[in-house]
Amino acid sequence: xxxxxxxxxxxxxxxxxxxxxxxxxxxxxxxxxxxxxxxxxxxxxxxxxxxxxxxxxxxxxxxxxxxx
Length: 68
Hints:
Layout: H1 3-19, E1 26-29, E2 47-49, E3 58-59, E4 62-63
Antiparallel strand pairs: 1-2, 3-4
Domain Ig-like: 25-68
InterPro entries: Ig-like_dom (IPR007110), Ig-like_dom_sf (IPR036179), Ig-like_fold (IPR013783)
Protein name: (diamondback moth) hypothetical protein
């Protein structure tokens, strides 16, 4: 293996080890299916327990705009 591959492998392993100390994220309020008329605004609600990072809604692989 080249040194670049060794560095990448070490980084992945240390990332997994550091995450193991945290509790699993899960939905406290589960999102529901929502239907709206195209072009209308939809309100999507959820609550995530043990949040580690940001929540991003997506549709068909594309991030949706969020208003707080």
